[in-house]
């Protein structure tokens, strides 16, 4: 759950040291120093893959909109923002400017 | 009875304290042939009754509630704890299984009864066996019992949820559960009659000596 609105223009990247296992279409991740295993569904896994280079929420929303032109942008934006907040809260992604 | 069940919880806490490299899954397991078929915990799916039915059919019960996974080869391990059934037995339990349970009735109260399984009906504490099958139970279906494939990712997700050993680092936990999932046949058993379910699983796994998906 978002505690406060986040800037969708700032770039995020994958955190260093995240361990990843790919099973079928889904990813299972462990953040460094974490005691939890996080499973990403297909959409979340696609967003994670998109973060192989630093990208902002707006850029990822754009990617998804091009991939799913039938889906309303508002819905994609809501889901991506929620997902990135989840990943950031669990230290799986960080701001691109610093670790 | 409730005190005994509380002791089970304490026992598993102690077990994991002195065996910090073991994983521990909520679920039932029976040995069919040379390997284990594990039923990850699903609420009120009837896994304890199914376990006792396997014993009645000549197979060996490993557990009806908690399955430790040893660290050397990730084999399932028996704890030697008798299964416990909710009483009265459900209406769909047939007369032969009722007789089997009645002949082995252990400690009981109004709601629950231990089943005192004999030698070869329950594996002794410490016995190990490889995991051959991981099976979700779906008892609601009508008609003949059938097995449907389950994706590795769905099964792995469930094993992660059902593992309550928290001393193994998460990456090691993930890799070990993934290895178990990759090596085992993963499926969902839809069934109505217990005897059908037992027969189908024995037919499927009794001759299973190698990993398959």
Structure overview:
Chain A has 99 residues and is an alpha+beta fold. Chain A is 37% helix and 22% strand. In chain A, the strands form two sheets. In chain A, strands 5-1-6 form a three-stranded antiparallel beta sheet. In chain A, strands 2-3-4 form a three-stranded antiparallel beta sheet. Chain B is of the alpha+beta class and 213 residues long. Chain B has a single domain, classed as Phosphoenolpyruvate Carboxykinase, domain 3. Helices cover 34% and strands 27% of the residues of chain B. Chain B is built from six helices and twelve strands. In chain B, helix 2 (47-56) packs across helix 6. The longest helix of chain B is centred in the first third of the chain and has 17 residues, at 2-18. Chain B starts with a helix and ends in an 8-residue tail after the last helix. Chain A binds chain B through residues 19, 21, 23-26, 28, 30, 34-37, 39, and chain B through 151-153, 156-157, 160, 166, 170-171, 173-175, 178, 181.
Q: Give the SSE order of chain B as H and E letters.
A: HEEHEEEEHEEEEEHHEH
Number of helices of chain A: 3
Helix content of chain A: 25-40%
The greatest interface between two protein chains, and residues involved on each side, is:
A-B, 13 and 14 residues
The strand count of chain B comes to: 12
Main sheet makeup of chain B: 7 strands, mixed
End-to-end Cα distance of chain A, whole Å, is 22 Å
Which segments of chain A are poorly predicted (pLDDT under 50) over 5 or more consecutive residues? none
Q: What is the number of strand segments of chain A?
A: 6
Task: List low-confidence stretches of chain B.
Answer: none
- CATH class term of chain B: Alpha Beta
Number of domains of chain B: 1
One letter per element, helices H and strands E, the order of chain A comes to EEEEHEHHE
Q: What is the CATH domain class of chain A?
A: Mainly Alpha
């Amino acid at each position: 759950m978002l505690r406060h609105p986040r800037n969708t223009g700032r770039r995020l990247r994958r955190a260093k040291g995240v361990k990843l296992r790919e099973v079928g279409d889904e990813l299972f991740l462990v953040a460094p120093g974490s005691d939890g295993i996080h499973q990403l569904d297909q959409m979340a896994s696609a967003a994670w893959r998109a973060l192989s280079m630093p990208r902002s929420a707006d850029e990822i929303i754009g990617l998804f909109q091009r991939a799913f032109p039938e889906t309303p942008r508002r819905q994609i934006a809501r889901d991506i923002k929620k997902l990135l907040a989840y990943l950031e809260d669990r230290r799986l992604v960080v701001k691109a400017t610093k670790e | 009875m409730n005190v005994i069940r509380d002791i089970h919880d304490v026992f598993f806490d102690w077990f994991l304290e002195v065996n910090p490299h073991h994983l521990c899954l909520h679920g039932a397991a029976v040995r069919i042939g040379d390997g284990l078929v594990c039923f990850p915990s699903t609420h009120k799916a009837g896994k304890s009754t199914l376990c006792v039915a396997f014993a009645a059919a000549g197979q060996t019960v490993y557990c009806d509630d908690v399955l430790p996974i040893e660290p050397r080869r990730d084999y399932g391990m028996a704890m030697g704890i008798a299964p416990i059934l909710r009483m009265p037995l459900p209406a769909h339990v047939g007369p032969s299984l009722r007789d089997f349970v009645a002949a082995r009735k252990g400690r009981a109260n109004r709601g629950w009864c231990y089943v005192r399984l004999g030698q070869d009906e329950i594996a002794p504490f410490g016995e190990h066996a490889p995991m051959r099958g991981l099976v979700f139970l779906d008892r609601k279906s009508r008609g003949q019992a059938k097995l449907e494939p389950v994706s590795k990712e769905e099964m792995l997700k469930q094993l992660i949820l059902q593992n309550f050993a928290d001393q193994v680092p998460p990456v090691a936990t993930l890799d070990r559960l993934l290895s178990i999932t990759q090596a085992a046949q993963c499926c969902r058993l839809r069934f109505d009659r217990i005897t059908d379910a037992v027969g189908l699983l024995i037919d499927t796994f009794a001759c299973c000596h190698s990993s398959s998906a």
